[in-house]
Amino acid sequence: MVMVRLAEVSGMVVAGLAGFGKTMLVAHLLGQLAPSPAVQFVLVDGKGGPDYDRLFPRAWLSAKDDLNQVRDALRQVHGLMVKRQGAIAQVLGVTDAWHPGPSRSWPLVVVVIDEAHTFFHERKGTSPEVKAHNALVAEVSRLVEELIRKGRNVAIQVMLLTQRATGDAIPTRIRDNARSPSASPPAPWTGRWPPWGRRSASTPTPPRSCSTTPPTSASP
Ligand SMILES: Nc1ncnc2c1ncn2[C@@H]1O[C@H](COP(=O)(O)OP(=O)(O)OP(=O)(O)O)[C@@H](O)[C@H]1O
Ligand SMILES: [Mg+2]
C-alpha cells in the first residue's frame, strides 16, 4: 500500500500509462472526501467521457473536454483564490488555512484535471483558429500554474492526471511545482464498485451560491 499525504499540498501529478488506474485512484479518493462538507470539487475530464458523470452533481464546477469551458471554470477557481488571499487574515485570523484546517465555511477546493495533457497542447500554424486555440492553452496553463504556486495556503489543491509527465505533455513550470505519485498497474479491487457508489440522501451537495466563497462579511 502506498500512502500519499494530501494535506498542505497545492499540486499533484498522477502519471501512468493508459489503463494503469489513474482515474480509478482519484475517483476512489474523491469518494472518500465526498461526504465531507469541508471539501468542494472542481472536476475537469479531458477525455470527455462518462468517467466523472456520477461525481459531477457533487462538484462546485465541472467541465469535459471543451477548452473554453475549462478556461471558464479555472478562471472562477483562480478568482476564488485571489479573493481568499485577500480575506484569509481577516476571516481565519491566520495566513495558512491548513492551520485551522478545511471547514464548511472555508472548504478545501480539490481541482481534478483528468487527461490534463490535452489542455496544454499548442497547435502549429498561423490561422485565426490556431491562434485562438493557443491563446486558450496559454491562459489555462497560466491559471493552473498560479493555482499550484499560490493556492496552498488558502486550501486550493490541483490534481493533474496524465499519461505522460514529460515536459511536452505538462509544462515543466507546472509539473515541477507539483508532487508526483505514480499510478501503477491496478491491484485487485476489493471495495464497493464503483468506488463512490450511489449518491445517498446524506451526501452533501454544495449550495448554488457555493460556500467556497469567503463569508460576505469579509469580502472586500
Ligand atoms: N484497483 C483496481 N482494481 C481493479 N481494476 C481496476 C483498478 N483500478 C482500475 N481498474 C480497472 O482498470 C481500468 C483502467 O482504469 P482507469 O480508467 O482508472 O485507468 P487510467 O489510468 O485512468 O486510464 P486512461 O489513461 O486510459 O484514462 C478500468 O476499467 C478499471 O475498471
Ligand atoms: Mg483515466
Structural class: alpha/beta
**Biggest sheet details:** 5 strands, parallel
Tell me the number of structural domains.
1
CATH architecture descriptor: 3-Layer(aba) Sandwich
Q: Runs with pLDDT <50, length 5+?
A: 182-220
Estimated radius of gyration: 17 Å
Ligand inventory reads:
adenosine-5'-triphosphate, magnesium ion
Strand order of the largest sheet: 1-5-4-2-3
Strand content bin? 5-15%
Principal-axes geometry comes out as globular
CATH class term = Alpha Beta
Count of β-strands? 5
The pLDDT mean sits at 83
Give the termini separation: 46 Å
List keywords for this structure.
globular; alpha/beta; binds adenosine-5'-triphosphate; 220 residues; 5 strands
Outline the secondary-structure elements.
Elements: E1 11-15, H1 22-33, E2 39-45, E3 61-63, H2 67-92, E4 108-114, H3 128-150, E5 156-162, H4 172-175
Parallel strand pairs: 1-5, 2-3, 2-4, 4-5
The chain binds adenosine-5'-triphosphate (ATP) and magnesium ion.
Residues 16, 18-24, 163, 183, 186-189 line the site of adenosine-5'-triphosphate.
Describe what this molecule looks like in 3D.
The chain is of the alpha/beta class. The protein has a single domain, classed as Rossmann fold. It is built from 4 helices and 5 strands. It has helices at 22-33, 67-92, 128-150, 172-175; strands at residues 11-15, 39-45, 61-63, 108-114, 156-162. Strands 1-5-4-2-3 form a 5-stranded parallel sheet, with helices on both faces. Helix 2 (67-92) runs parallel beside helix 3. The longest helix has 26 residues, at 67-92. The protein starts with 10 loop residues before the first strand and ends in a 45-residue tail after the last helix. Bound molecules: adenosine-5'-triphosphate and magnesium ion (MG). Magnesium ion binds at residues 22-23, 114.
